[in-house]
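Entry 14. Structure prediction run on the chain below.
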Amino acid sequence: MLRFCIRSRLRANTNFSAAPRTGQLRYVSAFNRHPSKAQAGSTSFSSTVSMVQEHIIGSADVDGIVAKIANFFGAVAGTTNISNTVTFQELHLEHEALNTSRQMAFSGSAGITISAGQQEQLSDVLAPSAFGLSQFRRGDRVRFRATFNVPQNGSWPTVSYYDSFSSTGATGSVAKMYNAANTTCTNIGGTGALTFTGTAPTTINLLPIVMLGTFASGDPLVILGAKDSLGEGFYDPSATFGAGQFNRALVGDGSAPIAGCNASVFGTTYQLWTNGGVMYSLLKYCNFVDYGLGTNSFTYSTNTPATLNTILNADKTVWTNMRSNAISGAGLRTLKISGEMLGPRTASGGDYTTLAGQTILSEVWNNGGDVATRNATYLTYVGAQLDYTYDPGPVLRGGTDPSQDPFYKWAPNLSQDGTHYNSTGAAAWAASKRVFYLSVF
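Output returned:
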């Protein structure tokens, strides 16, 4: 059973599907991810990387696509800048169904140098007419194909998980690093799997290129995921339709994906946002935030009201700043924020196939603990600081009675380690969350 709280804080829902075109750039792919760590290049040569990154058009049809590149990443307690430049030699968009690629440009040029720590670099708009189309359709599978390089001992921002329909072959996301003096990528402007001549390249983490665009009409649901490892995809790396509960929920079965961007960071708390002010630059491309931080804030073992109040006040500060950094304008939806309830947490080393094999982590996560108080307080915020709350508990918890221990344990076979889901748990969570997403607009 799905349980979530919806109270009208803003104007009544309006059918935006037939609304006029706004021209506002939004996230337009269900596979967008903001960088969450750094990838080191070679210590012996200037690293050249050729990559393909899969995307799927979400929420509605699109009449223009823009690439967004950042040279910083979200970290545990804020943001971290990449200290070297990243030079893109070329960037292409491949339309998988048409088996065709078209080159993208930066102010009319094929390449661009991204400054150290640069907040964002946008490409020129690529219109669907470049492919002989009137629009990019919702559900179209497209891929960025790019070659970039960094100096010797340099690095680039990356992510821990990729969202793909296939982890290998022509339809998967992949990156290869090499020394351009010895190796050449022969089809970066082509289609299908990357091919090379010379010395074999090394598989490495890609640089996530975020797909922005303009919707052909209206301002459909576009979601920013502000979470930790439970959103990033930890223990769910091989999902066919997105990795982790957030991107799985966006993609569904692939027939009606929802656009958004996953800005989750493993191990983080509200400090990602309170200390990383540049993160708020991500808000102008969405109209809905799924805020799911908190698990890493409650690592203490004894209920401490002062600490709980610090966490709650920090959350409210983040939400206020998110709203102030959102974009407003004719035809645009007012930003809405959903606060996610925290689910069960049990000690590591348990038997997660049974209830008896699990031990509730601490009194903080038990009946009457700070986590339960935090969840109850979130409900009181709806109509003021929050627009919605969503509770994954009904699909994750081992019981329905909050006065009994099973309520604070994982349902059997859904957790990997007592804190994180496994792929089965991620799928159940995502299915429930997708129903919630589709109910809000």
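Confidence is low (pLDDT under 50) at residues 5-16, 166-170.
Filed with the rest of this week's runs.
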